């Protein structure tokens, strides 16, 4: 009995040793197989949309993880809450962002729940067009004899940078500009000889373009006249041909004309169409209108009037043809 009991006790002791040894081996194996190392940071984080897109997209290189492997990525914008993305290396941010600077972050999480270091990218959103500029010189109605005049406007600014577009047209609707220059860095421009203008009436305007290609509104067009020769002939406004009036001291009005050296006007009133019998001979008029004085009042009858322009160098335009006016006082 004694030998049997001792043998059974020995067997039981050996079994306990094997049992506890197995437990130790399992514990060691579990401890060694447990992944406690987080994934690396995603590399190559890049924005793939332009700055004028307020729902930007991003891409990155997959993070490395030598343990259990990457399970998903977490993303956030501007220190907001983290969102689970899935095991993908692109993100389309669906919520529109305000204009200005933003910060996007992404980090990887492995299958054991370890989260790695974040990669971040600071970027700028600009969906607004640049500010409209305003024209400075030349002033509206400017008269010049320079075929390559200079133009100046107010500088504008934008976070993405600005350039300017200048248009010059002989129509105020700018439907067929004779000058259409893009990409001007400075807020001024002088026409080259290649773009030299011919005599005539013109309009000019400018718009601002930011670094993303967004355009401001155009400025209102300003007029100017180029004249390299004699003053042009004025065209008459009033009184129109064949006018009858009871006013013995009528007013006469005609168009302004361009002469770079300066201009005055010469008004004549006569009894006859060839202006051989003058009633009024008024020269060196500084403005394009004239009202008869009491001393110049016209008697009842039919008269003819005409006007020409004279520059300060003595150059004279053609005379307008004579228009008739009849005075018939009560």
| Number of DSSP-assigned strands | 23
Q: Percent of residues in helical segments?
A: under 10%
For the residues shown, what is the average pLDDT? 91
Going by CATH, the architecture of the largest domain would be Sandwich
Strand content: 35-45%
Discrete helix count: 1
| Integer-rounded radius of gyration | 44 Å
- The SS-based structural class is mainly beta
Which sequence of strands runs across the widest sheet?
A: 9-15-14-11-12
Order of helices and strands: HEEEEEEEEEEEEEEEEEEEEEEE
Might you state the CATH topology name of the largest domain?
A: Immunoglobulin-like
Number of domains: 3
The separation of the N and C termini measures 166 Å
- Could you list the spans in which at least 5 consecutive residues all have pLDDT below 50? 27-32
Question: What CATH first level of the largest domain would be assigned?
Answer: Mainly Beta
* Biggest pleated sheet: 5 strands, mixed
* Gross geometry: rod-shaped
CATH homologous superfamily annotation of the largest domain: Immunoglobulins
Write the layout of secondary structure elements.
Blueprint: H1 2-33, E1 43-47, E2 57-61, E3 70-77, E4 83-86, E5 90-92, E6 100-110, E7 119-125, E8 135-137, E9 142-144, E10 150-153, E11 162-169, E12 179-184, E13 188-190, E14 200-210, E15 222-226, E16 236-238, E17 243-245, E18 251-254, E19 263-270, E20 278-285, E21 289-291, E22 301-311, E23 323-327
Short description:
The chain is mainly beta and 330 residues long. Helices cover 10% and strands 40% of the residues.
Can you give a write-up of this model?
Helix content is 10%, strand content 40%. It folds into three domains: 43-125, Sandwich (Immunoglobulin-like), CATH 2.60.40.10; 135-226, Sandwich (Immunoglobulin-like), CATH 2.60.40.10; 236-327, Sandwich (Immunoglobulin-like), CATH 2.60.40.10. It has one helix spanning 2-33, and strands at residues 43-47, 57-61, 70-77, 83-86, 90-92, 100-110, 119-125, 135-137, 142-144, 150-153, 162-169, 179-184, 188-190, 200-210, 222-226, 236-238, 243-245, 251-254, 263-270, 278-285, 289-291, 301-311, 323-327. The chain is mainly beta. The chain contains one helix and 23 strands. The radius of gyration is 44 Å and the shape is rod-shaped. The model is unreliable at 27-32 (pLDDT under 50). The strands form six sheets. The chain has a five-stranded mixed sheet, with no helix packed on it.
